[in-house]
């Protein structure tokens, strides 16, 4: 997800919109997530490039009650700031406020959104994902999926 920002850097307040779809390995284990769609606007804010956008995807996760896989929709917005990479900018990070530590860096007139999109997908997954609101889960004794059938273990 490398974005060339040479045109944007030419003048302050310059803006450019990008839309792209890409597969991404959100768990960093070699398994690609289904297509991630990103709509982003890049703005030259003088010293920084501001990127605002929306990420959409649908990933397969496991229900925390019945352990069945199901599709989870992701629809997340983001806003990030980028500074040009330089050793001076990195060393001055020691004197930045906590809010400033959220700034990302770019090199060679290119911004890479891959890591931001990966992290955004991960934090968008529910902590206790349910396949459906009224999921009955598994029987605590025999392990039968109670959404599919009643168990015969008398519990």
Order of helices and strands: EHEEEEHEEH
Give the overall form.
elongated
Helix content: 10-25%
**Strands of the biggest beta sheet: in what spatial order?**
2-3-4-5-6
Q: Biggest β-sheet, characterized?
A: 5 strands, mixed
Oligomeric state as shown: single chain
The count of domains is 1
Question: What structural class do the secondary elements suggest?
Answer: mainly beta
Q: Kindly report the average pLDDT value.
A: 87
User: Gyration radius, to the nearest Å?
Assistant: 21 Å
> Unreliable segments (pLDDT under 50, ≥5 consecutive)?
none
Instruction: Report the β-strand fraction as a percent range.
Output: 35-45%
Number of strands: 7
**N→C terminal distance:** 52 Å
Topology at a glance:
Blueprint: E1 2-4, H1 6-9, E2 15-24, E3 33-44, E4 49-62, E5 69-84, H2 87-91, E6 104-106, E7 110-112, H3 114-124
Structure notes:
This protein has one domain. Strands 2-3-4-5-6 form a five-stranded mixed β-sheet, covered by helices on one side. It has a two-stranded antiparallel ribbon with strand order 1-7. The chain is 13% helix and 39% strand. The radius of gyration is 21 Å and the shape is elongated. The model has no long low-confidence stretch (mean pLDDT 87). It has 155 residues and is mainly beta. It has three helices and seven strands, in the order βαββββαββα.
